[in-house]
Amino acid sequence: MSLRNPDISSAKWSAQIVNNTNAASLLTVNAKVTSNAALSKDTVFNVAAGDSRNLAYKVFATNGTQQRLALNFDTMSYAMTDETGIAVSDSFSADVSQSGTYVFKSSHTTASTSRFRLTTDTVVGSFPFQVAQVPNTYAVQPFIGSRAIVTTQSALDGIYNRLGINMRPGVLDSQIRQVQVTGGGTLMYFCNEVGITSIAACPPGSIATYNISAGSSAESWSTVNAANPNDKGAFSVMVIGGKNVYVAAGINTVAPNDSIFRIGLLDSPTRLNTTARGGDNYGTWGTFGFDATTYTAALTRPDGTISNINYAVNSASPTIPALASINFGGTDRYFAVQDGTLSAVVGARTNPVTGYLQIGLVP
To answer: Would you call 107 helix, strand, or coil by DSSP?
Structure first.
């Protein structure tokens, strides 16, 4: 339990008692007279259980940082704590136009596109994080957070269709690869071909191998390139809707030391039809629809204007059926994955939208 908005004077003491747990509890307050400690009075408060959504999540942000988000629905407040321990706290409110969506209030932005949605043990949203490697500059960017992160190495295994972005001041790049974690979570492979190719179809000479070991925390796993020990990294695996989700955020150890973000969904033999809601690193919030032939989006920009998109969808790779290409007959081209719970979209490389990243939560 904690105390909120304390007010202390010589004649009065007041505060709101906040139960940060999901169980009812008793709180005893002992009051004593300063001039005579023998004069005291105990007051017992029966404090109701906190809202079951009052939870803390490990956050992977698309600016390449890992943070922690604490939500309190009793006080409608939050705290986002960065890797250095600095917390930003404020209030949030329900979005009256979109059930299940909540709007962050923050001194770092006036945009109403800073929002979030919840499902079991998972939060997906957008927040005014610092721009990667640009101190004191903030922009609304997507994030994904979880309370269900794999801590057993053998449970890491899977083939993931992984999308990501690399960032440094003035430079954005995209990455689209299939990644396999195997051997009871001890090895990671990805195909280092120019064309997007599955692990199974990758020429043996193009497969990069990484050794996996325990990371700096129970929620993290370290990777080291078997051919280049200077090429190191870390990743985590969330469990969302019963499915593994690969996530990573940090600084690349290989020059030019980009900030990176990665999200990978489990491979499947088909592409799913889904509708998701979430944000992108252009600061917009929207509803995203995927089916066999079409990608649609209704986007609210930071300035409040709305745009609607309707693009053709095709298969991005003959060896990865679950990976979709979007608008490859047009100028702005994208790749997308979805697993029935999450969706992710990244801009194609050497394209006007290189470095674009979108994350959506279904429904």
So the answer is: coil
